[in-house]
Structures are given as C-alpha cells and as structure tokens.
Amino acid sequence: MRNLKLILVGFGVRGKQWLKAVRKIKRIQLVGIVENDDKKFNDCKRVLKKGEQFFKSVECLQNIEFDCIILATPPNVHFNQIKDIVSKNIDIICEKPLTESFKSSLKLKEIVNDSNSTVIVGMNFRYLNTSKEYKTLVDSERFGPIGYSSFRYIRNRNPYRDDLNKYPIGMTQPMLLEQTIHHIDLMRYCYQSEIQDVTAQTWRVPWSSYEGDCSVSILLNFKNFHVNYIGTWTSGWNKFSFEWRTDFQNGVIIQKDQFSDLNFAQLESKLGLIGTNFKTEKDAEDLKQIKISKDKSFESDTYKYLQDYLNYKDTNTPMQTNLIDYLKSYAVIEACIESNKKRKTINLEKYYRYIY
Ligand SMILES: NC(=O)c1ccc[n+]([C@@H]2O[C@H](COP(=O)([O-])OP(=O)(O)OC[C@H]3O[C@@H](n4cnc5c(N)ncnc54)[C@H](O)[C@@H]3O)[C@@H](O)[C@H]2O)c1
Fold first, then answer.
1. Which residues of 269-290 are buried (b: 16+ CB within 10 A; e: fewer)?
2. What is the pTM of this model?
C-alpha cells in the first residue's frame, strides 16, 4: 500500500473532475499538472499545492519521477502523448476515445505492448450504482431471457457552454466517438455479451452546432437479442430525454435517467387478457423503483474507477475495465462508421480478430 506519484495532463472539463477524485485519495501524491493552454496557467496554479509542479507539455516529464499519468486531453493528442511517455515504465490512464480511429488505436496497443508501460482506458459509467444494479438484475436471470432493448439519448448539447469542451464541434463523428461509446460499453457490460453485427446511420441535423454527424441510429445484434439505439446532441427541445429499456420474457428493466432512476416490473401474463386493451401505467403491472444511493455524476464514478485502479495495483485483481475491453467497445464504433459509409450491416468478427 505504498503512495502513488501521479501526473494529471489537461486541465479542462474532465481534468477538473479527475483532480477532485485524486484529491480524495490520501495515498495519491500529485506530482503536477501538464496544461499547454497559457490561459489556464492561473487556474492550475490556484489548485496546485506546495511542492506540486506545473508543466507545459508531457515532453517536460523526461526527468520527472512518477508511477501513473492521467491523460484528460482531447483524443487527437493522445497518440503522441502516449508515444512520448511510454518508455517511462508507468501506468497511463487515458480518457476515451483512445484515438480517433481503430487503426491508430491498434498501432498504439502494439507500441504499448513493446514497452514496460500499461495503458488503461476506463469507462467510468460502469462504476455508477445504476450500471452495477442493472448488471446485477440481468445476471440474476429473474426475468428470463432478453427479447430486445431500446436505448434513447436525445440531448440538446450546446458546446458553447463554459462547462463543455469545444473540440467535438469540428469532429466528423462527434456523437459516436464522444458519447455513444459510453452507451455501447454500458450495454456490453450490463448484458455481459458481445455485439455480433451493427446496422448504423449517422447524420448531421441542419441547425446543429456540430459540423459533423451529431445524430446516430443503430440496430445492434447481440447473440440472442437486438437493441434499437438512438443518440443525438442536437434536438428541438432542451429537455434531455433518456431511457434504456430492456424487455425480457417475464419482465422489464427501465432506466429513466442516465445516472439514476432504475425500475423494474414483473410480467403477469394473465393481465394481458383482462382490463383495458392499451394499458396505461395505472392498469399495468407495478413499475418498482430500485433504491440506489445516488452518484454524483462524473465525480463518484471517477473516484470509484480510481479506487479500482489502486486495488489492482495492491492486489493484482483485474480492473473492471482495461485496454482490450475498451477496444471491443471501440470496434463497435468503427463498425458503425463502416456501416454508415457502405449502407449495410457490418459483422464485428473481423474487428474482434484484430484486437487479439
Ligand atoms: N469519461 C468521461 O465521462 C468524460 C467526460 C468528459 C470528457 N471526457 C474525455 O476527456 C478528454 C478531455 O475532454 P475535456 O472535456 O476535458 O476537454 P477540454 O477541451 O475541456 O479539456 C482538454 C484540456 O487539455 C488541454 N490540452 C490540449 N492539448 C494538450 C497538450 N498537448 N498538452 C497539455 N494539455 C493539452 C486543453 O488546453 C484543455 O485544457 C476527451 O478525451 C473526452 O472525450 C471523458
């Protein structure tokens, strides 16, 4: 249980969330923050404590001793940053997406394999209490086999807000790479099953703040069931609309909020024969909300992710998330891009083969 020396790179939206998690863990010693935007120098200075340093780039870290580095920078710089530090025999916790293409992510994996360093791309939403509970319910098999699922994420995300990053504005596939990847990962995690093929279309809504495809529609085939997914960052209403529903032979799970509000109902088949034909929530089976302690989004999940990493360091217990597992989620994103280009269903097998 020795102390861990850590460097944080990027002091933007995500870097600030990471710093909160780091500060909560006494045995982590923050060596310093790397940030290349001069305008953020004062922000960094304000949060740095005695003895902690400020660096302008990861190249300045050559003679600095540390065990772990968190990359909370935009994805277009991850490749070079990892290349610059991989020889240091350290753990690199990199934000998703690792890079902006499957090919460059695989190349990076090779570079890392030839080094003494480790790269972890953590999908923090797995550590939410709702995700854990969703997975537990699926695992319990109390509702029988899954029939199908629908996942809806409709949000009017204005990137010009102070508390949001700006770089996705110019990305070709902002929704897929920045947001949908979390949802794909959650489905893989909660269903404990791999996606076999995808049929996807992505598009830009004409009035969007994003230059690329801010909207995504995917039909995902898991082994014995399929999922209908819609995700967008541009809407005609500022009300955020989220629902992840899974229909089983004998029941349903419905998550109504992205970080909370998890519910289930047990099917009473006899009820299908009596009462009103189109039942409202009032005459259908009770939808029961599951009591779950509420996460502070982006903070408590990040903290638990960091704890998982420390536990892995202490006990060698595999983390809930790792590079290979991340690549399986990213393969689905890449297959969606291919499906959209070719306007056809893409089998994932060839992508999975590349990962190993
Ligand atoms: N896991 C999550 O829940 C979550 C949430 C938000 C963002 N992210 C991810 O975190 C990463 C960063 O996103 P963000 O929202 O913080 O973006 P951001 O633009 O708010 O912050 C990025 C920071 O990195 C700095 N930076 C850029 N290039 C640099 C370089 N070469 N050296 C040092 N600093 C550099 C920028 O100046 C900026 O301060 C992205 O990969 C994003 O997808 C993940």
1. eeeeeeeeeeeeeeebeeeeeb
2. 0.97
Q: How far is the CA of 285 from the centre of ligand 1 (A)?
A: 45
14 C-beta closer than 6 A to ligand 1: yes
The letter for the amino acid at 320 is Q
Phi/psi class of residue 234: alpha, beta or left (left: φ > 0; alpha: ψ in -120 to 50)? beta
Q: Which of 8, 9, 14 to mutate to test the pocket of ligand 1 (most atoms within 8 A of CB)?
A: 14
Count of the separate structural domains present in the chain? 2
Per residue in 43-62, pLDDT tens? 999 999 999 999 999 999 99
Q: Judge contact between 216 and 229, C-beta under 8 A.
A: yes
Question: What is the tens place of the pLDDT at every residue in 299-333?
Answer: 999 999 999 999 999 999 999 989 999 999 999 99
Could you tell me the distance, in angstroms and rounded to a whole number, from the CA of residue 232 to the centre of ligand 1? 21
| Residues 139 and 267 both lie in one domain | yes
167 lines ligand 1 (CB under 6 A): yes
Give me the domain span that covers residue 93.
Answer: 4-121
Domain assignment present for residue 321? The answer is no
Q: What CATH number does the domain containing 65 carry?
A: 3.40.50.720
What separation in Å is there between the alpha carbon of 96 and the centre of ligand 1?
Answer: 10
Q: Do 103 and 137 fall within a single domain?
A: no
CA distances 180 to 44, 96, 207, Å, are: 31, 11, 21
